[in-house]
Write a structure and sequence with these properties.
Length: 351
């Protein structure tokens, strides 16, 4: 008999990572899956020997009452489903990133989880990368002095990839508060990503007191980078997911790696009364705030400082007000079905 039951909502690509977590422990049994795509759901249940399947998550939550709920659906649906899972009495919710494409839902979900005592985490799993943790350890030791800065480049959109990178850098720095944000975006076509409005290019300066992050996304059209560098007054740290290398006045040091316990192991330990999970949703909420502040800065053409309270998406506001003129039909750069679904949902919610 295991300690907890789990259910997975959204049985597509990323659900495999969640299944791997659950099947890697004898403390959790996956008892149900849910997807609006019946073929995909049925194949997934057969492959992972999951006994129960549902097309509707509300029906599933009330019928199954799972202890742990994985939310693996498309971006705009995350918070609605997470709120329903928390309200249904789930003990823990693991929600995919980005939390959402606005700020209101994430704020409400974090507040409800805190009120109900639900262990609510977001799947920014790269906080477990040995190389990032080695860099974090070096900074904590004062290896390169302070303040520090990074120019982190990647491809794949702000919500999609920026959510990971901003979250990673905050983790490496020790989860500081942000102090101001300057953002720039470009959107010349009617682009979406997994059902959320998406820009084509992003450039931002994010400051955490003296420490800073320059974030460049898609400047070279989708190219991703794996090697990164943090600079300080006393040296630099070159790092990737596997290792970090310190270079200072003494020369180039041996690569360092800092392996971590597993994502689910840390959640179960938290549920057992241990330390708060590093991916607690209140930390992801800060990342969500910073991303919305980047859009707001682009919208207002000014620097944005906390507290940042706007619940609605500044990107959507800017697009609907004609502030970002575009050409062409709507298209989703990742999953066309996600856009079809999002547009239908919008018609239902805002007829
Ligand atoms: N943490 C990571 O590194 C990582 C990696 C990949 C994807 N993701 C995130 O995971 C999410 C899903 O991405 P994906 O690539 O797995 O997409 P996907 O299309 O492969 O899977 C999503 C599934 O959710 C289902 N779905 C959508 N709305 C639903 C609803 N209301 N109820 C039930 N099922 C529903 C779809 O039918 C689909 O099968 C995205 O938000 C993405 O950003 C995170």
């Amino acid at each position: 008999m295991s300690d907890y039951t789990a259910a997975v909502i959204g049985t597509g690509g990323i659900s495999r990572a969640h299944v791997n977590y659950y099947s890697g422990t004898d403390r959790v049994d996956i008892v149900a899956g849910c997807d609006i795509n019946s073929e995909r759901l049925s194949a997934w249940c057969t492959e992972h020997q999951v006994p129960d399947s549902y097309a509707d998550y509300e029906t599933m939550l009330s019928a199954v009452q799972p202890d742990i709920v994985s939310v693996c659906t498309w971006n705009p649906t995350h918070m609605k489903i997470a709120l329903a899972a928390i309200a249904s009495g789930a003990k823990a919710v693991i929600c995919e990133k980005p939390m959402s494409d606005e700020l209101g839902g994430p704020k409400d979900a974090v507040a409800l989880a805190e009120e109900r005592g639900c262990y609510f985490v977001v799947h920014h799993q790269t906080r477990f990368s040995p190389g990032y943790n080695a860099a974090r350890e070096m900074l904590a030791e004062g290896a390169i002095g302070s303040p520090v800065s990074i120019h982190w480049r990647t491809g794949g959109g702000l919500l999609n990839m920026g959510s990971h990178l901003i979250d990673n850098y905050r983790w490496i720095l020790g989860d500081p508060d942000w102090t101001d944000v300057l953002g720039w975006i470009q959107r010349d076509t009617n682009r979406y990503e997994r059902g959320s409005y998406a820009e084509e290019k992003t450039h931002a300066l994010i400051r955490f007191g003296g420490d800073e992050m320059i974030l460049s996304i898609d400047l070279e059209d989708g190219v991703k980078y794996t090697e990164h560098r943090i600079s300080g007054p006393d040296g630099v740290i070159n790092f990737n997911r596997e290792q970090a290398v310190l270079t200072n006045a003494e020369g180039v040091h041996e690569p360092r790696s800092n392996p971590q316990q597993g994502y689910l192991a840390e959640l179960l330990a938290w549920m057992d009364g241990g330390p708060v999970h590093r991916n607690v949703a209140s930390q992801a909420l800060v990342t969500q705030e910073i991303m919305m502040a980047i859009y707001e800065s682009a919208r207002t053409r000014s620097m944005v400082t906390p507290p940042f309270e706007k619940r609605e998406s500044p990107l959507e506001e800017m697009i609907l007000a004609g502030g970002l003129p575009f050409e062409g039909e709507p298209y989703d750069c990742r999953i066309p079905a996600a856009l079809e679904y999002a547009l239908k949902q919008r018609e239902v919610e805002r007829p």
